[in-house]
Amino acid sequence: MTGIRPIFDPHAVPVSAVDAHLPALPEPWLKAAALRQHFSEVSLAEPERPGDGGRLPGMNPRQAAVLVPLVMRETEVTVLLTRRQEQLRHHGGQISFPGGAIDATDEDAWAAALREAAEEIGLGAEHVEPIGLLPVYTTVTAYSVQPCVALVRPPFDLHLQAAEVAEAFEVPLRFLMQPAHHRHHRLELPGLSREFLSMPWSNQGRDYFIWGATAAMLRNLYHQLRQGRSL
User: Which architecture, in CATH terms, is 14-225?
Assistant: First the structure.
């Protein structure tokens, strides 16, 4: 998924709030069978974070799709994410879902998400089980992004498109579905106020700053998985 390189350093924007007051999703809800059942039975809710598209003038709306890959590891479900190459003009170094613009040859958003996942990280469709959609998220750069949620069955080998993707890694879904890890940031730019989420993740000495559209779509996943349930 691409977009204009930000005109600010998101790491340097102060944290304005942390959602530690919100409950973490119980681990039984995050099992593969429970996720499959929930998406099959619960209607799609309005997004908690719909995005801030249309705020920059002269940006024509573009349709896009991303794959939200939930990997069924033996011990728990994880989320497969990518880190883009630093030198890219668009989203250099950022954490993303596999995805991109919907082409005229794509039958629908699912076709685009699966095609992009195969092109970007070499994830074959035979490993992917579509289970549902999240609400469309509209980016400040005017992409209307359809997140396509899928279970991914190991084992699989990834083959990264080296020119675009620097790394693929997995984050436990339970970590991302714990709002104590959801941080709010706010900054004021000339003529534009921005507010965004981040979900920093560290593993084996590596730090990953998950923020922006990716963090917002993960927050919408949290919101969707709470529908029809009590905590």
Answer: Alpha-Beta Complex (3.90)
